[in-house]
Amino acid sequence: MSEKMISRRNALGLGAGLGVAALAAPSIVQAQETLNWRLVTSWPKGRAGPGVSAQRIVDRINAMAGGRLRIELFGAGEIVPPLGILDAISNGTVEMGHTAALYWQGKMPAAGFFTTVPFGLGPVEHQAWIELRDGQELWDELYRPYGVRAFMAGNTGPSMGGWFRRRLTGVEDLSGLRIRVQGLGAEVFARLGAVPISIAAGDLVTSLDRGTIDAAEFLAPSTDFETGLHQHAPYYYAPGFNKPNGASELLISDAAWELLSPDLQRIVVESARAEHTLGLADAHEQNAKALNDIIATGNVTLEGFPADIMTAAREASDALLDDIAQSSELASRIVDSYRQAFSDLRGWSALSSDMARSLVRS
């Protein structure tokens, strides 16, 4: 057979292949049709810390998805109330949300373990529990009845203890004190005699200004300073025993998740994971600067919690974890797993922290 005939046959074969491809093109385009999703948050757009993290996650997914998945971000209250995100995703109102697991402890007593626990795991320890132990598996099991799944998606780091309108001298000063506080820390304060009040972030300043509350625990210096809490309560307390970690979560409905191809699922997961790392570094940088700015105002006194408050709070926290463990078989497994991680990881955490402090002093 001549080279000319071979070339002609190859050309005909190529043409036929192109014809088949042309016929298949509409179905290929259809298969890659853009998914337009909405992501709602528990914070205002751009709010230091979690608001910035939400925007970066959306931008990251949109950039990597190649036009196959487009996510639009909505701040707290634009579509869904700040504390209504789990229900909105569960019932299909929206596909995604950026929030914190501690908001759902009324529905699931063990939910707070996936944000923070008083006197519990720090950010890196918590990530080790979720990513390298059985934390993610337990998280999936906890949320499964609601038809949603969650991934760590940002971290604001350890919180401060909160802003108080008057100085604390001992545990008796907490009796009847109205404090805005979230998560399991709210139950600890209640057991110490305080009156926890749930208030959305956007209403904190107004509540302090009007005297609706006597104290407010929010996050750390960066977010607290941006919110303006220093202008309404002069005593800033540490340590933030009630929130030693600040993990956010990316919530996705199971129905929406199943629409994603494996590579798009991986993009979503890695976008969330990347934000945990960047968010934590960003928080450390911004909090260091904001703390200096807060002190520079001259209107704020940094205080340490009195020793008897810390002792009573630790005892109340231990008892609270015991109570949560008794709420269900799954909750018991979550508490046991978390406590084991704390036991296994805390030795190195304490030693490395001591070394870091010695370097600062040297």
Major sheet: arrangement of strands: 7-6-8-5-9-11
CATH superfamily of the largest domain: Bacterial extracellular solute-binding protein, family 7
Number of helices: 12
Order of helices and strands: HEHEHEHHEEEHEHEHEEHHEHH
How far is it from the N-terminal to the C-terminal residue, by CA?
Answer: 85 Å
CATH topological fold name of the largest domain: D-Maltodextrin-Binding Protein, domain 2
Mean pLDDT: 89
Main sheet properties: 6 strands, mixed
Helix content: 40-55%
CATH class of the largest domain: Alpha Beta
* Number of structurally distinct domains: 2
Spatial shape: globular
Low-confidence stretches at least 5 residues in length (pLDDT < 50)?
A: 1-30
Number of strands: 11
Q: What is the radius of gyration computed over CA atoms, rounded to a whole number of angstroms? A: 25 Å
Beta-strand percent range: 5-15%
* CATH architectural designation of the largest domain: 3-Layer(aba) Sandwich
Query: Structural class of the secondary elements?
Result: alpha/beta
What can you see in these coordinates?
By secondary structure, the chain is α/β, with parallel strands linked by helices. The chain folds into two domains: 34-155 and 246-284, D-Maltodextrin-Binding Protein, domain 2 (3-Layer(aba) Sandwich); 162-244 and 290-356, Periplasmic binding protein-like II (D-Maltodextrin-Binding Protein, domain 2), CATH 3.40.190.10. The chain has twelve helices and eleven strands. Strands 7-6-8-5-9-11 form a six-stranded mixed beta sheet. It has a five-stranded mixed beta sheet with strand order 2-1-3-10-4.
